[in-house]
Amino acid sequence: MNNLVHADMPIEERMACDKVEKYFENWYYNLDRKSENFCFKYGLDWKNTQGNNKKHIKKIRTSILCTPDYICYDSVKDEFFFVEVKKCGYYFSLKQEQFKYYKQWQNNYPVRFWIYNEYMVNQTHTIKKIAYISTDLLDELINTNNYKETTWSKERKDPNDCKKLMWKIPFKDIYESLQSL
């Protein structure tokens, strides 16, 4: 999992790492090469903040920091939508405050999550899957299950780590919910 974003990375490394976002771009462009579909980078990342003033970036309102990563266009449906790109292993850790803001972005355009799942089964075999889920369906999944609520501080037994509440959602729940559609 080298070069992929993970929660143990410092913020500047997480924001600078765009490998998973490149996976999304390739996936989206290859869905229908003959269409007029497009997407472009929308949210903040380390590249477009130039890595400057880390202490000042933290002062930006959370509602703005939680800007979706991409704005996309579906030419068949003639509609725009946002996409938030995430990466996870066995669990998809979703901060509750961030999810609240992603739901608010839906007042502009629908927000979808593109979740890249990668985890090692053993030293020679890695499983890679993608889930492309609407915010509404993800919200329904959260509301109909009793997912563990925790913080990174509790998970890592580190009082200095992030104390924001998050859900630990098994990726298989997300993936299987999409198979029944």
3D architecture notes:
It is built from 9 helices and 8 strands. By secondary structure, it is α+β, with helices and mostly antiparallel strands. It has a 5-stranded mixed sheet, with helices on both faces. Strands 4-8-7 form a 3-stranded antiparallel sheet. It is globular and about 50 Å long.
- Please state the overall shape, judged from the principal axes of the Cα atoms: globular
> Termini separation (Å)?
30 Å
**Sheet with the most strands: spatial strand order:** 1-2-3-5-6
Radius of gyration: 17 Å
Low-pLDDT segments, ≥5 res: 1-5
| Protein structure class | alpha+beta
Strand content is: 25-35%
Helix proportion: 25-40%
Instruction: Report the sheet with the most strands, covering strand number, pairing sense and barrel closure.
Output: 5 strands, mixed
How many DSSP helices? 9
Order of helices and strands: HHEHHHEEEHEEHEHEH
Mean pLDDT: 85
List how many beta strands DSSP finds. Answer: 8
